[in-house]
Amino acid sequence: MSSRQAIRRLDYTPPSYLIDRVDLTFELSDTHAKVISRLIIKRNKGVSSDTPLVLHGEELTLEGIKLDGAPLTSAHYVVDETSLTIANMPDDGILEIVTRLLPAENTSLMGLYQSNGNFFTQCEAEGFRKITYYLDRPDVMAKFTTTIIADKTKFPVLLSNGNRVGSGTMDKNRHWVKWVDPFKKPAYLFALVAGKLVVLAGTHTTPSKRNINIEIYVEPGNLDKCHHALAAAQKAMAWDEERFGLEYDLDTYMIVAVSDFNMGAMENKGLNIFNTKFVLAKPDTATDVDFDGIDSVVAHEYFHNWTGNRVTCRDWFQLSLKEGLTVYRDQEFSSDIGSRAVQRISNVRALRETQFAEDAGPQAHPIRPDEYLEINNFYTWTIYEKGSEVVRMYATLLGIDGFRAGMELYFKRHDGQAVTCDDFRAAMADANGVDLSQFERWYSQAGTPVLRASAQYNEAAHTYTLTITQSCAPTPGQAEKLPFHLPFAIGLIDRRGHDLPLQLLGESVAGDTTRVLDIRDTTQTFTFINVPCPPVPSLLRDFSAPVVLEYDYSDDELVFLMANDSDAFARWEAANTFALQLLKNQYAAAGRGEKVAAPAAFIAAYKKLLSSDKLDPALVALMLELPRENYLLEQLSDVDPVRLFEVCRSIKHQIARELRQELLAVYQHLNDGTPYAYDGEQVARRSLKNICLDYLAELDEPMIAQLLAKQYQRADNMTDRLAALKALVNRDGGEAQLADFAAQWQSDALVMDKWFALQATSRRPGALSRVQQLLEHPGFSIKNPNKVRSLITAFCLANPPHFHAADGYGYAFAADHIIELDKINPQIAARLASAFNRWTKVDAGRRELMQQELERIRGTEGLSSDTFEIVTKALG
Ligand code: TRP
Ligand code: ZN
Description:
The chain is an alpha+beta fold.
C-alpha cells in the first residue's frame, strides 16, 4: 500500500537526475522474470552534488546493483517499499540493477503480468516501477534498448518498442530478440510482449513514400477477427496525414490484443497493447457499436504517437494535454469516416451521462487537477471527454485552419519534449495572434457552467435581443468561479423553418446563418437586426461548449425545432429536451400519486419522426431514444430510482401502444432481409429498426413474441441477434434464447461478456440473484476486468432500479465486491466504487444505506490508495 500523501501540481520540480539511455534484458521463465537494467545517468544542470539519487520501485526483489562496474553494498544505498536511494552519486555514471519479479502472481495488471500464459506489460501511469528501479516520471525521457530471452516453444513471439535489430538461439530451448527504440521516451511508454501469438499484417504507404508495416498480434484462432482493426489502422494513418500532416515515424506499427486489461488500450511507442474488445470482431460476434468502438480506439492509440509520445506530458497533472487532445482527434476521425451528426450526438450524450455527473459530484476536478492521492483515479471522464470538449472549443473559436496552425506551432516548438497544458494553449494563441488568457479557466475550474438565455423580439424595430448569463456552481475546494471564455453557436429560424442570415447591431451586412458568439462575461447581450418576424432560436448549435443551457422553450417550439432545425445536434437536442421535461414532470406527478401519461403533442412528435422519409434513419433512432435513468437522476433530487424507472417504463409502454402501427411499419420496412454489411447506410437502418423493436417489445402480444424470437433466430449478425435477445430478456426473461446463446458462444470470451451484461442490466425482478448465480458460472472470473465490468460493474452502474433496490442489497453487493476486488486489482475496485458517488442524490432511506456501505469500505484494513481516495471523497 502506498502512502496517503497527496501529490500537488504546484510542488512540481524538475528531476535532479536524467537518464540518457536504458538497456534492458528480460529473462522470462514460467515461475519468474529477471530484469537486468543498465542506466546511463547524469545529474541535472544546477543540481548540487550532495543531492541523492532516488529511484522509484515497488514490489521488487533487488538481486544486485553496480555503479560503474563496481558492486554496491547495502552501505551505499537504502531500499524501502517505494524507492531505492543512493546518497553519493557522481555527476554521471552507469548503474546496473538486477531485479526479480513474479508476473504470474501480478493480478493488478500493472507492470509485467501474465494473461493466458503470455507476458504483457502496462506501464502507464506508474507501472514501470514494478519492473525495475527507475526515474518513473514522464519528464525523464531516455532511449531504450530491450533484449528478451525466453523459451522458444512457449514464447515464439518476443516484442518491444521500436525496431527489431537482432535475434538468435541460446542454450537449451531458449531464444532471444533485441529491440532498439530510436526515439527517447518516458518509461510509461515502455512495452514488452512475449507469447504464443499469430499475426495479421498489412501495409500503408505515407505521402513521403515510406512503407509502414502494420502488424496485429492475437492468440491463435483469432486471425479472422482482425481485419476491421487493420483497416482502422490504415484509415487512421491516412487521416492524420491528410488532416494534420502527421506521418508515422517507425517502420512497423504493432498492435497486440490481450484479454486481461484494465482499460481500453495503451499507446506504447510502436507497440500498442489493446484490450481484445477493441481488436477482435467479425459480424457474427460483434455489434455495429463494437465495430465503431474499434475504429475509435485504434485511431486514438495511433494518434497518441504524435499527441502523447512525440510530445508528452511534463507531469501527470497535464494528462488531459495528451488525452483530451487525442480524444478530440479520434472523434474528428470518426466524424470524417462516418456520420458527423451521429458522432457528435453520441459523444454529447455520453459526456452528459458520465462527465456532467462527475463534475456535479464529490470527485469533481478541473481537466488539469491540482492534487491526487492515486494518479490511476484520474483517468476520468473529465480528463478525457471534457478535455476533448475544451480542445474542440479552440477549433470552434479559431476555425479549423487556425486550429491546424496552432497544432503545427505546438509540434514545431515541442517535438521531443515533455510539456504542459499551458504550452498547448500558448501555441494556439501565438499561432493565431489571439489572447487566450481567460480560456485558462477551463483548465483550473471544475464544474459545468450553466448558461441561462433569454430573448426579446422588438416588433417595431425588427430586432431580436439575446441575453446570456453564465454561472458555475461550487465544487469541492472551489467555492467561487470566475466567468469562462466560450464559443456559443446560434441560429435564428423563421416561421417557415428557414435559417435567417444573422446581422448584429453595428454590422453593415448580414453574415452566415450560424454565428459563434464570443462569451466572456457573466452577462452579455447580443442584438440582431433586420429580423423580420419573431424567430425560434436554435441555441448551442453543435454543442459548441460543454455547458448546461437553460432556455424556456415551449413544447410547440421544441416540436418546431425537431422538424426544422438545420443543425443536426440542435434538432436532436430539441427531442431530447422535450423528452427530458416530460419525464421530469411525470416523475413529479407519480410522486403526487397521479397517473403517468405523455401528452398527445409528444406522441404526435414521435409519430412524425417515424413517418419522416427525409431524415437519416440513424438520427431518427437517436431522437426516439428516451434519456437514460442515470441522466435523469442528475436532474432531480431525493430520488426514488425505482419510481423513476417505473415512470420511464410506463411512458415507453404508452409510446409502444399508441404508435404500434407506425413502429411495426418502420420495423418491417427496414427488416427487408438484405444480407448483412457493415456500412453507414446499413448501420443507420439497423439502429432505427432495433429501436422500433425495443419499443414493440413492451407489448404483451403473441405476435410480438414471435417477431422477437424470429429476429433472434434468423439474424445473420450480432447487432440484430443481441438486440432481439436484450428485448427478450427484459420482456419475459428470454430463458430459452439465453441458454441457446451461451451454448453457441461459451468459448468466445467477448461474446460471453455481452451475455453476462444483458443479464446484469435486466430490469426484470430477480436481477441481483441472477448476477450472484452468474458469479459461479465457469465463464466468469473475478480476475478478468472485462468479466467484472460486464457482470458486476454493469449491474452497479447501469441497472439503477436494481442497484438502488430499497432493501439495500444492491449496495451491500457492490461494497462486498469492491472490498474483494481491492485486494486483486485496486484500479478496477476504485472504478466500481464510483457507483456510490451520487449517494446524496437519492432519497433519505437509500442515502443512509449507501453511506453505511461507504463507511464499511473505508474501514476495511489494508485498503488501496485507489479505493481509499474515491471512497473518502464520496463521503465528503
Ligand atoms: N493512455 C491510455 C489511453 O488513453 C490509457 C490507459 C491504458 C491506462 N491502460 C491504462 C491508464 C492503465 C492507466 C492505467 O489510451
Ligand atoms: Zn489516450
